[in-house]
């Protein structure tokens, strides 16, 4: 992708720390508690929200941990957290080294946020203290101790159970920065860790900036996620395992480095890495759909855009993959931890997964203790094949590395090293920039490899990303978004609440292009909305005329169609964010 210079915009929140009193958090939260934005909460160690308690964090609250101390926040099974950030007043969790105004190279400065729930997990290789090894059947008895936590309580540091509808609270407009404190060898904290979280938990607008291990890691469960911004992660940006069966839509992944560490521990590895289960014949197995992601890789030394392991079943719809270092589709087969990979014990082969209907629910190790009907256990995929890429755009991906796999699967046409678009799947191979642009800094060496950080970005869609043949069908979670990638042509949802905006690394606001209007009863103004954002529809006599108020609409995440008989077909209309 060509690199464009983006003019940075105003910063936010620079005065938070100066205006608030410091409160040291030294004890676990055993009774319901509220943290307010007139204080800065300093995590002095690993702090647990214990079962039965609820932690509510008010919008605009700053949660910190002194750099190097290793404070973190973990929400146990049976506890809840409500992170009530807003677009204009986000909740920030970071280290004391974060100036809140400028990016710095660093990670491992504090811990993370961990949530543990009671959803089903496919974790047959793990042992449980006083219980022995988990089974490969979905009985609801399998539990796993969360990585990175030092408390040895089965009740408060384990995740897993029999309730896919479990409710751990809600998270909105949360920025997590410079975390991942290393507890021990191969025992690092992710930016956001989600273990067996149920679908009644609401998570949207979450950012991870600079983390030593994965950005967001999900083990099992059914939680749905929307609007994710993941930058400069030291391992995998999004990592999924142990039978995850939720939905994910709208995400920006920008690969880079967080510190001068090895790949996978400071320098980005795979953009999206997905395992089916701890062993590929375990139930449940990861069966999910990811729609409208924009993925910008480290083209100098990054690994795969999408990595597939241990019978993972994933549908990628209407995504953009650009500047990928190695394979756009990376077939790892196993995770290297003793699992058996695709095709083991009667499970489908890698190739067959791409040609088998989504309704093929494996009978291997299935029991009906929780779900009598397997369709109820695997509800996310509603059409197509168990593994597929449709409506995706590939821009400056490493064709020589991924050509054999991507061509053999029919994702694109042509020959290795010379991809061509596949009209049947609406997959596009293009050199035309799919987003308005971004700028990289100078090439440096980190972890013994070359990397050039993205320093500015305008991720709004342009060129062939402006339309897609089959937008995701609205279903109460998925939004019918008629474009490829995570952003429409007219609204950058990074604005206001992210460090990317705060550090002056993105162009914010509208690009000035008015949504198209079509005549129905009067005129209908159509535009993709973001959950909770208030929009103002304005009208004028000409494109460069004086804009005046027409109506206000609050976004619900759907593609809004506003119609009014008083709107004139000869007029000009635009939508702005209030």
Helix percentage: under 10%
Alpha carbon gyration radius: 23 Å
Question: Count of helical segments?
Answer: 6
**The biggest beta sheet, please?**
17 strands, parallel
Number of strands: 44
Descriptive report:
- There is one protein chain.
- The chain folds into two domains: 16-466; 515-577, Immunoglobulin-like.
- Mean pLDDT is 89; it is low at 2-15 and 511-521.
- The chain has a 17-stranded parallel β-sheet that branches.
- The chain is 5% helix and 36% strand.
- Strand 41 (534-540) and strand 42 (548-554) form a beta hairpin.
- The protein has 578 residues and is mainly beta.
- The relative contact order is 0.11.
Task: Label this structure with key terms.
578 residues; mainly beta; Immunoglobulin-like; 9-stranded parallel β-sheet; 44 strands; globular; disordered N terminus
Q: How are the SSEs placed, and which strands pair?
A:
Layout: H1 16-19, E1 21-25, E2 33-35, E3 39-43, E4 46-49, E5 54-57, E6 62-65, E7 72-75, E8 80-84, E9 91-95, E10 113-116, E11 127-128, E12 132-133, E13 144-145, H2 154-157, E14 158-159, E15 169-179, E16 182-184, E17 187-188, E18 192-195, E19 202-211, E20 216-219, E21 224-233, E22 238-241, E23 247-254, E24 272-275, E25 287-296, E26 306-309, E27 313-317, E28 320-322, E29 329-333, H3 350-353, H4 374-377, E30 388-390, E31 393-395, H5 399-408, E32 413-415, E33 418-420, E34 428-429, E35 435-440, E36 444-446, E37 449-451, E38 454-461, H6 499-502, E39 517-520, E40 522-528, E41 534-540, E42 548-554, E43 559-564, E44 572-577
